[in-house]
Amino acid sequence: MTETLTLTRPDDWHLHLRDGAMLKAVLPETARDFGRAIIMPNLVPPVVTGAQAAAYRDRILAALPAGMDFAPLMTLYLTEDTDPADVAAAHASGLITAVKLYPAGATTNSSSGVSNFDKVRPVLEKMAEIGLPLCVHGEVTDADIDIFDREAVFIDRMLDPIRKATPGLKVVMEHITTANGVDYVKSAPQDLGATITTHHLIINRNHILVGGIKPHYYCLPVAKREEHRLALRAAATSGDARFFLGTDSAPHTDPNKESGCGCAGCFTATNTMALLAHVFEEEGALGSLEAFASKNGPAFYGLAENQSKITLIKSDSPSQFPAKINSDDGPVTVFDPGFPVYWSVA
Ligand SMILES: NC(=O)N[C@@H](CC(=O)O)C(=O)O
Ligand SMILES: [Zn+2]
Ligand SMILES: [Zn+2]
Q1: PTM N6-carboxylysine: at which residues (predicted)?
Q2: Sheet order of strands, 3-8 included
Q3: Which of 92, 209, 327, 343 is most buried, with most CB under 10 Å away?
Q4: 18 labelled as ligand-binding?
């Protein structure tokens, strides 16, 4: 017996497409199911200026296979030298949808990020004025803060002060991994939202470490205790408009993951919608999947919902997803949830 679920075509509000051969290999995996995605700017070198974002957007569109309908929503990488006028011009022309804040050293390719938050105050004030959202990788980088506490400490020490100092600034806490993140977002009646990844709804820190280290489950922020995973599930499936899908699908080649110093990032573009249907069904909340994946994000960003639909199908036999995507840079392992999934996208 098959079951179907038709949804407004979803968007991905946090995506890494990389560049060159990797871009070519992973872009179709997202464009197949998603109408739009917020494109992360942490290339090497990062996408800092409007001119760089325009050139990157052109490379993405050139890599898009003919016949695929997909719109990249570009972002700028905030540095201590970012020019508020360049940001405002990129926003006014419709080129960018958000600016991304990486605390320096917090994650993959974040060395050009921000250390001294006073230096970016003029940019944040300009963004509040023009209504341009700030997407935040919310982890402190202090060596003395335990990696499992870095999100909670960031909220108290950095995020809350930034928001209080910049009234009206719209902020997205990207890829929240803790009940602290959920609670903080719920405490704000306006101007604050959060993306939640597919993998953080599925794995906790045991999945990374028990029975041997699993490099393909390592991402940042690192998955936390089970109680946090359950808080994320409750938030994602609640229908609360402040929570929406950002897969943080972050491809790295297998040699770079399966290494003595493996890169952070889970590649979930290929099977995200099937995995989400599984998770939402487990939570008895299939009816909230459309809000999470297709409606809450556009509402937060002030954009129209996609016009087209996708249909998810549940069949009697497990769906077959590729174990790897091949790129000319090397293979990329597709996120394996560790259980059979019966959903797929028609
Ligand atoms: N999430 C990750 O673990 N990695 C991301 C960076 C990021 O989103 O922090 C990447 O670019 O690989
Ligand atoms: Zn991040
Ligand atoms: Zn990311």
Answers
A1: 100
A2: 3-8, 309-314, 343-345
A3: 343
A4: yes
